[in-house]
Amino acid sequence: MSLSILFATTALAVQTVSVGLLLALRHRHGTNVETGRPAFRPPVTVLRPLCGLENNLERCLTTTFELDWPDYEVILCIADPDDPAAAVARRIMTEHPSIPAQLLVGEDRLSVNPKMNNVIKGWRSARHDWIVMVDSNVLMPPDLITRMLDRWDDETGLVCAPPIGTEPANLGAYVESAWLNSFQARFQLLADEAGFGFAQGKAMLFNRNLMADMGGFERLGEQVAEDAAATRLVRGAGLNVHLVPQPFAQPLGKRSLAAVWKRQLRWARLRRVSFPLCFLPEILVGAALPAITVAALAATGHIHPAAPMAYLGLWYAAEMLLARAYGWPSGWRMLPAMVMRDLALPALFISAWFGNGFVWRGNAMTVADGEPRPARLRRAVARTRDKARALVAARSH
After folding, report:
1. How far is CA 164 from CA 168, 196, 248, in A?
2. pTM for the full model?
3. Which of 209, 291, 303, 384 could be stapled to 213 by a disulfide with Cβ–Cβ 3.0 to 4.6 Å?
4. How far is CA 136 from CA 33, 182, 234, 286, in A?
């Protein structure tokens, strides 16, 4: 019994303390505004891969041409010339003639990752050394480049942002929002604050010279997930991955529960292979197992019968408070979505261990594809770190 109480108490403490820490982090970033810092506004290439008519595609692409930045170019990449997203991209480019932009069509088969095969031509065509790669279903706020560059210091090799699910329009989208926001984003932001930041492929800021020292952008194709490959590459060079403190919105629209499950299962299987030691504790997260423990204690008379409801009330009140503080979806529909997510978490963890396959954008793949292999080009860690420091030093001149 004592172990059961300890487990349930510890789980609730992790839930509430993690929420409290993230609320404090938000307050700190919101009030600690630096003054007198030299402006660092280098020319930037914005790279966006396209594939199909996703929810809010036109709206998301339009934000690419409305950035508050003095000098940037836009490169849109599409693999299939018959993809209907190409017509949308051309129309938006025509409507914004003042922004240098081009649409590149075709793919180079360098990886098992179709996104890398699509976007590599854009990387090679980029005119600038600072390159932001953002998925086509992300809304780019006007200050996106500023927020990402502000996170770059002399120990940085990559800056990224987890996706935040906004504007859910049905139950599936609310469940996905509950998964992405106050659950996954919470722990990603806390990991970054603790010095263990890891990449997420939705929005990533690179420096071309640093990437060249680490073996080139092509090395992100050495694994099936480019964000996992980027994390390994940057950490292997003795540098850090940093996250922006207020991530960018991904408007969800409608999502089927089956699609949400498949996407989460794909990510879970990739985490299991890419970072197994970090994946193992995931069986303990979420309210399902602690709530079952508390319910069993109440049923056997060891604690008050009302304890399970009080326990769950505290658990989800903390998470709803977090969502509201960050401006994430937090209405009453989020509560059943959070419960459904937590009920699915143990099944997701178990399913991640039984099977390696998944389908991504019509491509049948396996987590064993693109396993890390010895680098084709190696550079001394010290040289890469020196270049990272020189980049930041240049900002003060």
Report:
1. 11, 20, 6
2. 0.88
3. 384
4. 30, 23, 24, 30
